[in-house]
Amino acid sequence: MASVKIQGVTKAFGSAVVLETFDATFENGEFVTLLGPSGCGKTTMLRIIAGFEKPTAGSVSFDDKVVSGGKVFLPPEKRDIGMVFQSYAVWPHMTVYDNVAYPLQIKKVGKQTIKQKVDRVLAAVHLSQYAERIPSQLSGGQQQRVALARALVASPALLLLDEPLSNLDAKLRESMRFEIKEIQKDYGITVVYVTHDQTEAMAMSDRIVVINRGVIQQIGSPKEIYTNPSNPFVADFVGKIEFLEGTAKDGVIELDGCGQSLHYDGALRGRVLVGIRPEQLQFAEGGELHGTVKSHFYLGDVNDCRIDLGGGKEVRIIADPFESADVKAGMQVSLRVRGCHVYAMDEGAEDFRKILT
What we know:
Elements: E1 4-13, E2 16-26, E3 31-35, H1 42-50, E4 57-62, E5 65-69, E6 72-73, E7 81-84, H2 96-105, H3 111-124, H4 140-152, E8 158-162, H5 170-187, E9 190-195, H6 198-204, E10 207-212, E11 215-220, H7 222-227, H8 232-237, E12 242-249, E13 252-255, E14 261-263, E15 270-276, E16 281-283, E17 289-298, E18 303-310, E19 313-319, E20 332-337, E21 341-344, H9 345-356
Parallel strand pairs: 3-9, 3-10, 7-8, 8-9
Antiparallel strand pairs: 1-2, 1-4, 4-5, 5-6, 10-11, 12-13, 12-15, 13-14, 15-21, 16-20, 17-18, 17-20, 18-19
Helix pairs in contact: 2-3, 2-4, 3-4
């Protein structure tokens, strides 16, 4: 296992700044996800950790040993890392066994030791029975497990994964999430995982680093990120949410355009942006918000509805199908608000509002 300390890392390609003052520490045995939209800099940060890119400024250390920074730069092969890419990158002419054994063979490890290590890791990824097959005889998920086994076979201190599930279908992605997490626990290895999929990040991570435009927006556990997002970008990127503008004063937030208000006992005053997640709303008599069911979709386990509050303002509610069995499009409804996120317009919400419109 290895801890990773990133101090003041920036990265620019010519005049384009991809990462700005990246500071973070990943602990031994921790599963950390770098999460953000395409082009936010998350893969660049992973490549800097791996040694495929040099930082423009700042340093990266493994267990307090600098691997990038100043005049120090260790190449990837000397960093004791395993890496799994988005593409499977398995050799098509080799068997599964030989693909996995290759990192040990180039290190001139003894044949008996190679067999022991390969057998162990193939069992861990449930591929023992496919050891003599070639990649073309495997499914996409099986090929990705071959790549994972090859990254693990040399027992690296650090495992780096760059969107490894994005080429798989939805059902296989879901099962692979749990397999990777279980393997990480079994090996006790430190993992840095890159994805733009917030569900993957929530399901697998001990901590999430949310990045946008090369800047860290928030670092925290999945629960912290979801329940207490630091700004509107994080709230919007991690989970479903609808935003309404309003004015906070005298214990309420008066919502723009719809003539309705929410109870509010927070400290903000003046112009605010209110974020309400679908599960924070409940159909209830005498609720704070009132509106008309604009659309209704029965999805079996939930009813997914859009509610028109008036003045072009809408909220979304994902309701228990037993509690909302009679709800139909066009019906007048009342909503209880069980929570919301409130941001001052001068704390980044103003810029975020421009993105929404």
